[in-house]
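User: Predict the full complex structure for these chains.
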Amino acid sequence: MSKAMEKKIHAALQDKRIQDAFQTWEPILKFISRAAGLGIDYEAARGKIHSVKERCIDESPQLVEQFKRVAVEAGAQIYEAKTGQDANDYILKVASDNGVKSIVKSTSSLAREIGCREALEKVGLEVTETDVGDWIIQLANEKPMHMTATSCHITIEQVTSLLSRASGEKLEAEPQCLLDATRRTLRKAFIRADMGISGANIAVAESGTIVILTNEGNECMVTTMPRLHVALVGIEKLVSTLEDATVILRLLSRANMGMKLPVYISHISGPSIADSSPTALGTTGQGPAELHIVLVDNGRSNLRQLHEFREALYCIKCGACINVCPVFRSLGGQTYGHIYQGGIGTILTAFLNDSEIASDLASLCMGCKACTAVCPAGIDIPGMITRLRAKIVTEKGLPWTKKMAYRSILGNPGRFDNAVRAASFPQRPFLDNDGMLRRLPPPFASLTNTISLPPIVFRTLHDRLKDFAKPREAKAKVAFYAGCVCNYAYPELGMDVINILGRYDAQPYFPPGQTCCGAPAFYEGVIDTAVSLAKKNIAALEVENPDYIVTVCPGCAAMLQKEYPRLLGNDLGWKQRAGKVAGKIRDFSQLVTELSPSAGKKAARNKRITYHDPCHLRRGLGIYREPRQLLEREGYEIVEMEDSDVCCGFGGKTVLEYPELSDSVLQRKLDKIIAIGVDTVVTNCTACVLQLRGGLDKRKSLIKVMHSAELMAVEGKQLTLKTGD
Amino acid sequence: MAAAISDLIEQFQNEAGQAGAIVQIASVESKVTTLILNLSCEYKARHVVISGSPLANTCRLKEVLVEAGVEVIKTALSEQPPGIDDAKALTDKPKRKYLEADLGICEASVGIAETGTLVITGNEGDERLVTILPRIHITLLNADNLLATMEDAVARLKSGFPADPGHRIPRYVTYLTGRNTTGDIPGALTARAQGPEQEYVVIFSKGTGGG
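Assistant: Here is the predicted structure of the two-chain assembly.
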């Protein structure tokens, strides 16, 4: 959380150019995401890329040596640059040694990373970006708004004005006219250029080849027309063989643009020679006389040594992740500060460029996991973000307010419980007649500007289930882990769960020792608190040796099932205990279907509902069929809304830390719910219920938000329990 | 065997077509020259550049075009050295001959059916200039060199120079799929960008229908 980032968020959300651009691009980005996997086994293909990158990053030093040897044999000149500055200095030297005045450049995120163009322009060299998008933002003097669609936020009027000035012609705001002028002007730049600078998407060690993917054709000119070609290649780009390269080529354009292949893939393995045999040397062909390959480290070999973050080097810079990231969709790429964007950009910026802003960037991620679900290299981006936060907390510590909140309060179950219950008193003056909180005072005011909140109950679910602390006689022994939202805000939901499971001959009990799952601490990077809470919960849940542990919040379920074993991985005893507990975790809908495998379908209710996939349930735990099957079995007709699996915006901390950002994401979700035209949206996450209900209330919508358990309970509450509620 | 090739040709046509190229088939050499003469007429070509192409040589493409009143320069210095003036014009900085060419004709070493891709290879770089600078680009492809997959193409590239001790792949290997495009001009999502106006592919497939 940072005030500086809050301001940036506000600015981006208010920036009409950005918001209009992404509104226009949303269907295109969706098309790309759909087209990426069309007709292929996407999972298999990205598994292959992950393996190639894993092996090649592991072998990186050997591959660099091999590449150097082979490329030099072919007459290329190799320079190994330790830093970005180093690389820029080398290029300046080549330029000055050769009397270079004019340079043309094709797209290179590495060049942006090291400020290459700026370094050259500083000494008076003319550098023209030749990719149309890159050229437009060069003329506009802006940073890219997207990794590949760099100028997507620049309006046609602005483009017309920029191109008119650059071409010296008065142009019309008409695409064909602008394109023709672009061609004419850039052609002149190609013709007068003494040097061409390119990047490289892949570098192949066995053949000393750099591989460059483009669509426009500008790169072919940059790398063939001038006498000198300088290629900037990050050392993480190295793979061993052309077959390895092909594995990457199979997904790179699909993920980037929804196309099987780009229009041009250039493989360049040396300077040009006037000979039909590739190994002949000593003559110059009609391409460059000299090929300089600058192999750039700039923090990559250090990053490679960091076992927890090495995966970031597997990135193939396709942009698939930012295309599905709800934060990126709301804010655009310039908010990420330096050059790399989105979650993976956060990691790269932190280790390659600017660790100062890392903490701010890392606070943006909502943990929805949309990125990792599409990443062609199968990188666990959200996992690295969490580890980055933990690293920052370890190195920089926490502000004392947070230290107190996490370690002293959240980490102490009794104190935490008292603190939350205590909040049920001061809230009273702010309760509306229907019991909802709609206007909290500062510092919580921004929260209730976004969503209406349920009141905190004093008599929690824990209190109501005091008599159900131990299991009773039943076919299945089910422990109920409710989570904080259910316990403190929606205890009736907890009662619904108990009732419904009773119908399936499972008598859930409520282990009283359970406490907060620790997610808030974990996602903030306060690992010691998360570990301590993990141990407390495991101890509470394992005591009666249940068959199942049922949950209503997949955020909690993901902590219990996925994170606890990892958090306790260093201690064999605890790891085993965590593993046992993990194996018993069941989402509510999952458990109901498991307990009643042969249950028949109920009569159709002629009621249409829609279903919202919680992020942690769908992508965290892989559960999205069971909830739908259960609802259909119950006789409901599910009408799928657009973007059913896109985050609701709650994002754990996001709703508290950056309510404006949370709201931006929420509003898009609410639009889709309202558009589908049903009166009930069902979901299986108490946090999503809170967020969606709160947002719809703010919109004065009558659409009901229900957890599956609530919906199933509505049809006749069976009071099988004496709760005296 | 023949069936396999016609399947590959069909797949190639679909894929390349979707990517924006115009694919034509010739089953005899004379048809190849006819197709190119037609294009030359259609685009009122006066200047043509041709990079190294065994097929063009077999079809006597240069001679046919010259007879039709077109100026033709063969661009490969290493193969058939052009006249001294031509050599200067080809190698001087402004690449004038390529820039003023109406048609640029090259031959693909390999075609990849699964993606509709042409693999254009060379060491001089002239074939790249022929591919990117002239107004219209035509790629010739011998159907014998049409392979099924990208992996097949890589295997062919790696085996292509048996006489070479290093088994080097050519210095320039350009995969061309469809026609150049950009999405960066607002309002025109798939406009043609900085390369040729059109991409034509002429597949020479001896004896198959299309003659």
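The two ends of chain B are 19 Å apart (CA to CA).
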